Amino acid sequence: MEEATKPKIGLALSGGGSRAIAFHLGCLRALDKLGLLDQISILSTVSGGSVIGAYFHAHRGDFPSFEMKIRDVLAEGLAKRMCRKLLSPLGLKLVCASLLIGAVALGTLLIRIAVAVCRPLAPQSLRKQFERFDIRSPLHRFVSRTKLLEAALDDVFFDGAVLGDLPAQPHLVINASELRTGSAFRFGTSESGSWRWGKVRNNDVSVAHAAAASAAYPLFLPALDETFTFDKDGAISQARIILTDGGIYDNLGLGCLWPDRSRDVSLNVVSVDTIICCSAGYGLRQEPPSQFLPARMLSVFSTLFDRAQNASIHRLHDAQRFGLIKNFIFPYLGQLDRQLPNPPPDLVRREETHSYPTNFNAMPVDWIDRLSQRGEQLTICLARAYLPHLLNEPSKLNHAQTA
Fold it and tell me: How much is the pTM?
């Protein structure tokens, strides 16, 4: 294929815990069968998608050995490996850190309450001093359950590798969210950082650290509280940042694939003309009636979350409509089966897979099979229907078009 006509494909793997890992395993298997994996220019990953995507990028063997490893990890569960780490020196450090940080946080809270009580009683001349009084805990959360996840990921997948050790092609982007600025924080094989803070100097971040930050779902895994040295337009500075699950900012991983991004205000800009977005979390939901505040707030969060993803999907359609990209496909777990072009007779139905939880617990083998098979089937159907010119399987393609 001539360089001028060579496609520039961006592949995005969404969040969704172990459910996403199993679903994306099938999507990657389909892309491998169709001859599309070797054509990927940039791989953008989020949360559970970051776990499998980063390992796929780092893996040195063939696809069957990659799949076998992923299946073994899913069957055992990352949560089990995290629990084992509690019995290690890291676990002891976690207990000590929790006690110390908790004690300091409690002391800080009591001081703030005392100041709030005393402020109205203070003389008028001193009240301005009280207004300027702002005490916060000076300690970072230097160890947390998220560090257990990082250690487990490093043991099972990455063996101490840093981003700079990974192949330059395709370009890998692991997406996290930075809570201090409410912006995306992207770890990449060529550069890492945020447009608000700048680039991380030397980019010597471990792959396990980036994947753990991307997968730190706030309800279960604390945000990473750390200090990086940044280079922003030649100015070197240190900043304390708070990193959490990349799905908070963009659960589909499409943010770094949009064709209108500018290098002046963005990092990890790689131009693409075709987008493949695999999503294990988007779909129709119907929850029980919410009577109490926690359930109502969870429903509110889920609604906002779904609407944000829906806006991204509309943006994909608009990008193609206005000629900003040539093609896209969107294999997603909640795909309505009746809308799937040329579905296979043994299609794994939406209802058989859509309800699996998004955690890192051990996954039964039959669920691994169902989720991965659905991911493979959806990806093959959509690729044959909308990306036929990119596929390396002419005989299968002709059969699909005449079916």
Answer: 0.89
